Prior knowledge:
By secondary structure, the protein is an alpha/beta fold. The protein has one domain (2-167, 202-213): Metallo-beta-lactamase, Chain A (4-Layer Sandwich). It is 33% helix and 25% strand. It has helices spanning 33-41, 56-59, 62-68, 142-153, 168-178, 183-197, 207-213, 222-227, 237-249; strands at 2-8, 12-18, 23-27, 45-50, 73-76, 87-88, 94-97, 100-106, 115-119, 122-126, 129-130, 133-134, 160-163, 205-206. The strands form 3 sheets. It has a 6-stranded mixed sheet with strand order 1-2-3-4-5-6, covered by helices on one side. The chain has a 6-stranded mixed sheet with strand order 7-8-9-10-13-14. Strand 3 (23-27), helix 1 and strand 4 form a beta-alpha-beta unit. It is globular and about 60 Å long. The mean pLDDT is 96.
Amino acid sequence: MNLISIPAFQDNYIWLMDDQNGHCIIVDPGESASVLRALQEKNLTPDAIFLTHHHNDHVGGVGDIVLKYPSIKVYGPQETASKGAKIILKQGDLVECGAQKYQIFHVPGHTKGHIAYYSAPYLFCGDTMFSAGCGRLFEGTPEQMYLSFQQLAALPDETLICAAHEYTLSNLKFARSILPQDSDIETYEQQVTQMRKKGLPTLPSTLKIERKINLFLRCHDIDLQNKLGISTPVNEPSHVFALLRQQKDSF
Length: 251
């Protein structure tokens, strides 16, 4: 398999999963022109479109791609039915596409119906988990997003986090504002700064890296809790998650 990232808009990534036999899947095509150009340049035929949620910057290109490839299958959660999804997915479903099998996780938080697609080691998680961060809570609650993160955190260290936005550097700046002495975060911020200066993408990340630098995966961390002004033991880590997200919203 060959993973291809296509930059779109200001900071989106549209993902292509090339099976190296001339076929591929497309993940969250927010627009069509760059996708159709990449398919032509790489001589690829798309078998399927995977949608993670209903926001326009993830579904806007579906119509044009379907016009060009009318036999393509479009998968997504119920909330994307009006955006072109014909095969509706839910928690626990399994999607077979070529030689790959994708496990479906329902990961509400950013939207109520948001899903993620996992076929080891690839995780297409849309706007749920970003490198060093998490998506805004437009429809869901902090408790829902915390539980969504726990689902994804149970995956292996080598899982590739194929998120949909290039937010890594800004997320690391926020993390450093909370934990300025954390050497893992500091070192990774330096690496990412150099990557972005060269115009390189910071995705996919790995879950092993995220466990160290993503504060939203570290809600049990006592040092983090203390930095957030929590002085007594927390019975509900989702409260820590909620406080982090609140501070990130105003950062």
